[in-house]
Prior knowledge:
Layout: H1 5-11, H2 20-23, E1 32-33, E2 39-42, E3 45-49, H3 62-75, H4 91-104, E4 108-112, H5 115-126, E5 132-136, H6 141-149, E6 153-157, H7 162-179, E7 183-188, H8 200-205, E8 213-217, H9 232-235, E9 244-248, E10 258-262, H10 264-273, H11 275-278, H12 285-300, H13 303-321, E11 334-339, H14 342-355, E12 358-359, E13 361-363, E14 372-377, H15 385-403
Parallel strand pairs: 3-12, 5-6, 5-7, 7-8, 8-9
Antiparallel strand pairs: 1-2, 2-3, 4-10, 9-10, 11-14, 13-14
Helix pairs in contact: 3-12, 4-12, 5-6, 13-15, 14-15
Bound molecules: pyridoxal-5'-phosphate.
The site of pyridoxal-5'-phosphate has 14 residues, from helix 5.
Amino acid sequence: MPADIFEKLLANRGPLGQHAKESHGYFTFPKLEGDIGPHMIFRGKKKLNWSLNNYLGLANHPEVRKADADAAADYGFAMPMGARMMSGNSNPHEQLEKELSEFVNKEDTILCNFGYQAILSSIDCIVDRHDVIVYDAESHACILDGVRLHMGKRYVFKHNDIEDCEKQLERATKLANETGGAILVITEGVFGMRGDQGKIKEIVELKKKFNFRLLVDDAHGIGTLGKTGAGTGEEQNCQDGIDIYFGTFAKSFALIGGFISSDAQVVEYLRYNMRSQIFAKALPITLVVGLLKRLELMRRTPDFKNKLWEITHALQSGLMDAGFNIGDTNSCVTPVYLNGSIPESTNLIYDLRENYNVFCSMVVYPVVPKGMIILRLIPTAVHTLEDVQYTIECFSKIVGKLKAGEYMSDHIAEVNQ
Length: 417
Ligand SMILES: Cc1ncc(COP(=O)(O)O)c(C=O)c1O
């Protein structure tokens, strides 16, 4: 008799799911309540919060809140009914695509309902089984899942290692010559865990030697990097070398959805062939109108980005001055690298949240090697220099305790009693 699928799932609940009973509601699925910002309520108490990708502070900006409320009153959330191709197209959708194309300096843009799905589905749409994908080893899950859909060959290069990228491009070129296929290179503008920028400019340079197209996932770069906030390509002065540019609405834009920008004919190809957009309902107009307002504010007001970077510089230089290892971030993402076991990391986070009222995300094994703990801080334009100062003081205290072995215990903080 075949096994029962439910029994199989329950026998092995997965690397994170196996800890659900002890961690749910605290370390996983925590509920942050109140207005989105640096001070939010967690389990009934106010915490200084560094865990949201609300980079520019737009989530709770009065003009944004008003635009969202007005759009909801005008359109509701049902419109449009249907996929863009069939019955769900609208003027605001086309207007947003036009304005985004201007913003990121590409000919055309297609809106997508989720950033994750935009990457996955565009990869699926662009390559066929004769083509070869070359991608960075530390790519986000959505890239990995897009690559998993690919029926042809793929070569992975060591994270941000241009020499290895070149080596993989040599292999890919040889293979593509045999299959008659083409090569797609995929990397990220900013790697969301470590905060290091992808070496986009150097990869673009490799086009002089190899024939390939470049897809860049700039989820963390859009709005935060570049003179106008147009992202990592603008920051590194190589936007023209990015053939397919992806940005999410889930971070700087503080909404949901994503977009892909490229040459007009390529975007037209995506419009007529990208399965997840052809066979799924379009983004609600209310969200699209809210996005137009956010984009207008981003383009009109450099203050949001300037303030974000003021806070980022203060946080990163303050942490380094206090002796913390923040790795090689050159974006707003601020990881603090510590050494400790999983019980130590949970006890430390518990202490930080309960006794110092600081809330940040923690990354441990299996996402990073065993023994490593990353406390991940996301500065925003709505944090203050006092928030920065207070956090560094708290971090110094908890790391003193970590080094003194005070969090060492077989007993993981019991948060669900
Ligand atoms: C690098 C990267 N790509 C894609 C995504 C997915 O974007 P979305 O949240 O818009 O689906 C994320 C979100 O975490 C991300 O960090």
